[in-house]
Design goal:
Layout (H helix, E strand, L loop, with lengths): L3 H11 L13 E7 L6 E7 L1 E2 L7 E4 L10 H8 L2 E6 L2 E10 L1 H14 L2 H8 L6 E6 L1
Antiparallel strand pairs: 1-2, 1-5, 3-4, 4-7, 5-6, 6-7
Length: 137
């Protein structure tokens, strides 16, 4: 099973042939943020779904396994919402937007359908786990 930097490396080397379909069949993308302290690129392989049927804007969850604080990549995109995204061989720039309310509830269900552990993570933390749409620019 691929994790962390190795997951990102293999994904990028193979345009997602290795690494897109991850554990339990969950699809992954590679998100590149600018480090909020260093300004350096930081890359993460994350589970995603598209926000609608046109498969234009991926949606990700900042769960960090239900930890009490948000993951570093989420803090990075809060500081600088312009990110780079790779879905298989498709590479593009996006603007990250945290969603709320009905939109969040609908997309949470869509993501939890491919990664049911998200519902368990939500029970482990007091924070509302952020759901983020990566809107192509």
């Amino acid at each position: 099973m691929l994790f962390g930097d190795e997951h990102v490396r293999r994904y990028e080397e193979t345009d997602g042939e290795v690494g897109h379909d991850w554990e339990k069949g969950a699809p992954c993308l590679v998100l590149t943020t600018k480090g909020r302290k260093t300004g350096e690129d930081r890359k993460f392989a994350l589970i995603y779904q598209f926000d609608d049927d046109d498969e234009k804007n991926p949606v990700i969850v900042a769960s960090k396994g239900g930890a009490p604080e948000d993951p570093g990549w989420y803090k990075n995109l809060q500081a600088n919402p312009e990110v780079k995204v790779q879905v298989k061989a498709d590479k593009f720039t996006a603007r990250a937007r945290t969603i709320e309310g009905e939109e969040r509830a609908k997309l949470w269900e869509k993501l939890a359908a491919v990664w049911p552990d998200y519902n368990e993570y939500a029970k482990k933390t007091d924070r509302e786990i952020p759901v983020v749409v990566l809107e192509r620019v």
